[in-house]
Amino acid sequence: MPTPRLHPDTVEQVRQAADIVDVVAEHVVLRKQGRGFVGSCPFHDDKSPSFSVSPEKQFYYCFGCGAGGNVYKFLMELRKQSFAEVVLDLAQRYQVPVKTLAQEERQELQRQLSLKERLYEVMAIAGQFYAHALRQPSGHHALSYVEQKRGLSEETLQQFQLGYAPGGWQTLYTYLVQEKGIAVELVEQAGLIVPRQNQQGHYDRFRDRLMIPIHDIQSRTIALAAAPSPTKNPNTSTPPKPNFSIKVRFYLA
Known about the structure:
Layout: H1 8-17, H2 20-25, E1 31-33, E2 36-39, E3 51-54, E4 59-62, E5 68-69, H3 71-79, H4 83-93, H5 103-134, H6 140-149, H7 154-160, E6 163-165, H8 171-179, H9 184-189, E7 193-195, E8 202-204, E9 209-215, E10 221-228
Antiparallel strand pairs: 1-2, 2-3, 3-4, 4-5, 6-9, 7-8, 9-10
């Protein structure tokens, strides 16, 4: 019997009901660290705990292998199940009523839901990348600025998930497209990269910037605020146009 097409309301209700920390903790030994949890990554031979789980964002990410996503992605990768199978299993576990789609609605709604979820995921991975870059040698001047000049504590940096966009023209592009294998069209649609004019290729929209992710009420990253780093001229280009419900905007100090 084929798996039924699930109504978007069911997918969203299950996602809200399923706590990612509880689900991941059934497969990974987690310990509290700051506002989140860390443990050994189940997707590669992790020598030191590089796997983080954020209860606020309901998102996991591994700084070692780059695996990341929401509760659905975690179980799909771990169990090798389809999206619908994972949703149905969680719906049964959390006693969420299941609604399916009428035949004529299925294809378009599934396409919209899939694109929306992928954009959320790309934004979350980008936010994790920027947070990691802040603590790398290339972000030392930005980290020193926010800690010493602005007086922000490590707890505040973690709470607001401040990050740093390196100054290279294709640093994020290389990570997302070449290393992570994310489609360049999807990264461009999220507003993170910009096509070069009159030539092939793309470049990072944010360069040498302090980055602050903006979340919705469900703690999903829906935008990125960018402020000049201590070495950056505050003049910037026009903000990009919004794509669906995922938006990337410039916010300058």
